[in-house]
Amino acid sequence: MNTSGDASTAEASARAHANIALVKYWGKRDVALNLPSRGSLSVTMGALTTRTTVRFDANVAADSLVVDGIPREGAATERAARVLDLVRERAGLVSRAVVTSSNSFPYGAGLASSASGMAALAVAASAAAGLSLTPEELSVIARRGSGSASRSLHGGFVEWRAGSRADGLDSHGVPSRPADWWDLRVVVALVDAGEKEVSSTRGMQHTEATSPYHQPFLDGVDADIEAARRALDARDLTALGRVAEASCLRMHAAMIAADPGLLYWRGATVELIRRVRRMRERDGLPTWFTIDAGPHVKVLTLPAAVERVVAELRATPGVVDVIESRVGGPARVE
Ligand code: PMV
Question: Is 40 in the pocket of ligand 1 (CB under 6 A)?
Fold first, then answer.
């Protein structure tokens, strides 16, 4: 913690990475507490980082949030306030907070900035408030800001256990394998699309309420997690990639079958899917895709193939940038 001499303020900074789900979370058993209907499993992406500074300040009247130099209001501030309130409650603090955050990747474009953002916020705010919490406790707090943030407290490969308690205290990230377990690479193809149209929360509720395929999606998750665990243990990308593609496509199928159908993809998304499969089937490269609630495509691959994968993705019309990532470490105070 980095407290100033003035007793009315306390400041700390933290860094966290985004994660991409290999077995997807799409459905809540409790909306207010952000409790998922099933578990999920992700890989932490070291190249996608959020750095956040929190200053609790007795002299300011309201919480404020600046992300990448721009003051934010609305949904982003509400999420941040939920996390800050939990920290204040725990620390017996009343001061409002000044939060400044910067991302190494485009904010709010469906690249999981809420996961790294809420994880970094939970860690920085807790440190600034003088709390010393376990990663599980921090994960429970981050989860209230964004479900997927519960997985960004840990590095490497992480499971988010659905838990069964009504208060959600057993619904948090759990390390599956550490970052140095396997030198998997994730190559992200950014598709030109601007800000996301439908938030994950709204999209999930709409799918749950209207899609005949939502329950079948949920019914497959436990087996997918089990298969992903086995693939991770064996460092078997073919097995892991199969599960990841299937989980992703079933989640999107459930959304597309909602009423009205929810389609996050652009033309370039479909083109990227085809290219990833062509690289695998025609060129024999280890390439598997996954896609969250947005148009971007993340490709799972291995070090020897990264250069060719990057070139192929860059050459796809509609792709505006390509980011390469190694498996990242845990969220931390700095
Ligand atoms: O964490 P949220 O509420 O933004 O939801 C994330 C949903 C997906 O990214 C589509 C899936 C996942 O497991 O991360």
Answer: yes
